[in-house]
Amino acid sequence: MALTKRIFEGKTLGILTGGGDTPALNASIEAIKSRASVLGYKVYGIRKGWKGLLGDGDIVDLSLQPYDGSYGGTALRSSRTNPFGVSDNSRVAEIMRNLKRYKIDVLVTIGGDDTNGAAKKLYEQEGIPVIGFPKTIDNDLKTKTIHNYNGQLIEGVVCPGFPSAAKGVAEFTNRLATTAESHSRIIVLEVMGRDAGWLTGAAMMGGAEVSLIPEIPITKEKKEEFFDKVSEAYQRSKKHYLIVAVSEGTRWYQEKLDKVDVVYASSEVDEYGHPRFGGISGVIASEIEKKVGIQARAQNVGYYARSGECRNYDKKFVGVLADKVVDLLLREDYGRMPVMSKLSTFQEIEEYHMDTIDMGKIGNQPLPFEYFDKKEFHFNESYIDFLSYFIEKPKSIRFDYNFPQVKPMF
Ligand code: F6P
Known about the structure:
The protein is of the alpha/beta class. Helix content is 31%, strand content 20%. The chain is elongated, with a radius of gyration of 23 Å. Bound molecules: 6-O-phosphono-beta-D-fructofuranose.
């Protein structure tokens, strides 16, 4: 018997992206869209996150459009709009009205804790069928991904966007070596990641020797230990330069405030109540220069990590997660999000390690203590092993010189 009708023909699936962009967002949209189309769904894109469901709505039809998933960021655009508003629930009625007006039957929300947490609340309160899809360069969503490191089971995380961003951080750090070396300097490199140190660890793959992460607060006493380690690492380095990677969310003892705190880029908070971090590298570089007596400069990886093309690992990863979305759609099992349950040594079998979790209980996952040596201010080998599932060490351009010193003639 010939197939004449597909299972969800006549139904519409809407996709939105919320929160900070990542290099894997378009790839995720493409992967979900193509699978949903095969199931018969008409696929709509909701522009600018939840904002696209407010007012008159801002919806586009993706069904028959070609879609380039290699191009980073999100062609649907993103925002940090909270569907519950800041002070009341008035936006919920607008969202419900628009879902009806546009006849959207199922919503796939690509986002982090905030976007997916809000989606789950809408599902519970209003009965909107939702499926979550993970994304973050910070890699701080509790996906419960088990990393088997020589028999030691560590609860890791892997979210689409992180592998591409980590590769960017490693590359950026690797490039800094030549300029740090030319001036025999210490470069303090600030890395995004909000309250978690996952992304900062990628700088170690690029040659950073010392690191600070938000999980380890740097008290007045701990600061002295840190300066000693910086000095030691600099003296030990064959070529007399050093790269120190610091998380933007590092909690650092600040003399003027007489307290341990993060450095804020501004006093604003977004609609989910998150402040903006930024500037810690400048503070630490100037303190290193005073304390250690070596010229230090601050640098920020910034959006270099978040922007640019989707790398190979992410491309494949979002595909296997999107297959799990198909599973959820077919079972009409809403309020859940696909995740990878354990890291596979062989990429060919990764798809068998996909699972789903309740998207209302994602929560944040800091860097596990197994990955960081807080005495040495250094990521452990176990973390390098973790990263090596997604990225390779960048090739360092080596130039080993040892020019003979010339003595004056008189
Ligand atoms: O959550 C992703 C992230 O890139 C964080 O690492 C960073 O703190 C924040 O977003 C920056 O957001 P924005 O670009 O909106 O300032």
